[in-house]
Amino acid sequence: MSRVLVVDDEAILRDAIGEALRRAGHDVETFDSGRPALERLATESFDLVVTDLKMPGTDGVAVLEETRRAAPDVPVLIITAHGTVESAVGAMKKGAYDYIIKPFKLEELELLVERALAHRLLAVENEVLRARVGEPAGEDAVWGPATRGVYQLLERAAQSDATVLVAGESGTGKEVAARTLHRLSRRRSAPFLCVNCAALSAGLLESELFGHEKGAFTGADRLRKGRFELADGGTLLLDEVSEIEPGLQAKLLRVLQERAFERVGSSQTRRVDVRVVATTNRELPAEVARGRFREDLYYRLNVIPVRMPPLRDRRDEVPALAEVFLRRHRKRVSRGALKRLCEYDWPGNVRELANVIERAAVLCPADEISGEMLAPWLEGQARPAQALVGVTLEEVERRVIEENLRANGGNRERTARVLGITSRTLRDKLKRWGA
Q1: What digits encode the pLDDT tens for the residues 177-197?
Q2: How many Å apart are CA 417 and CA 402, to the nearest integer?
Q3: Which fold has domain 312-382?
Q4: pTM of the full predicted structure?
Q5: Residues 163, 304: contact at Cβ < 8 Å?
Q6: Which helix (H) or strand (E) holds 353?
Q7: Which tens digits make up the pLDDT trace of 342-366?
Q8: Is domain 3-130 classified as CATH 3.40.50.2300?
C-alpha cells in the first residue's frame, strides 16, 4: 500500500481526491494548507505528494521545494488551473513529476498517480542495480578445494534467515562470501547493502544504521532513512562489526532480537525484515574476554559461523584469481610470473593479490606480465633480520606503512585494506608521525 499526501485548500476537491485514492488502495492523508503538510512530511515517510499550486500561505511551489529537500526520491504532482499552467511548467523544471489541470476527472488523476508511483519504484530498483554494479558476479568468485566447504556452508545457510558471522584475516574475501550468501538466498532480488562499521564514529554510524529525523541533531536538515530501513526484505552486511562502540552494540542487539528500531530523534518504532551478515578480522571471543565486545551480541551474531581461510592456505586458487583480476585488462601472466605468485605468502591475502595484478597490468607495456616485473613487489616487503636489530617496533611499523603507501601510489584507503587495518587507524598513525 502506497502512502500519499494530498494538499489542497478547496475542501470539496481535497475530500474527493482523498476518497478516490483510498478506493484505489492507497493510504491517504489530506491537508488544507502547505505548512502542516510539510510538518507531517518531516516526521513520516510518504511515497507521493499531490499538491495544489495556488494556496494562501505556503503554496505548492514551497511544498515542492521542501519535499525535494526532505525526501528527494518522493515524486510531486501539481494541481493547477488553466491560468497558471506556465507556473506549473516552472514547477516541473524545479523537480515536479507532472501536473494536471483543473477541472479534471478523478480517473485521470488516479492514472497519473499510478504512473508517478511506478516511476518512483523504478527509480528505487535502479538505485539497487547501480549499487550492485560493483558486486562480484557469481562466476568471478573463486572457490577452490580449500574454500569449497565454505561455499557449501553458505548454500545451506542461504536456505534460512539466520544471522551469519564471517571471520577471517583482512582481505580474505569476507564480503564476497556475504554477497554469495545473498545471491544464493530467496532475498537475491532485494537490496544488498553494506556498512563499514570501522569508518564511522558512533554518532554517524547510528544515523547510518537507523536513520534520523529532520532536526535530530546539528546538520540533520532533512529526514534520512537508515540502512536497516533501506535493506528491508534484503540483506545488510555489517563490515568489521568488532569496531562498533559498546553503547551502539546494545542498540544493535535489540534490532537483532526484535527486528525493530527507532530513527535517531524519533520515538516511533519501525519493524524490518532484514537478513544480517557480519564480518570481523578480530577474534570476537577474545574481544569478549577483554570486555570490548558484548557477549550477548556475539552469540546473536554467531548463529552460523563461517571462516574464510587466508590465501597462503589456498594457493591453488591463485591462478584462477589472477585470471579474474586480469580479465578487464586483456593481459596474461607468464609461467614464471605465475610461479612467483603461487610461492608468495600474501600477507594482504586476496586484496593484496588484486592490487599487485592491477598494478602490473597498468604498468606492463606488453601483453604478458613477466616474473621479473613482479619480483620487486613480492620480495621488497621482506627484510633481512639483521637490518631490524636495534629498531623499535614503531619504526618497523612506520617503514611498513610508508612502503605500502608508496606501492599503492599514496592511496590511503587501499593501503589500509592491504595492511589489515582501518582507514581511521592509518590516518591516526600518520597524523601522529606528522605525515
Answers
A1: 999 999 999 998 889 999 989
A2: 14
A3: Helicase, Ruva Protein; domain 3 (1.10.8)
A4: 0.58
A5: yes
A6: helix 349-363
A7: 989 898 899 889 888 988 888 888 8
A8: yes
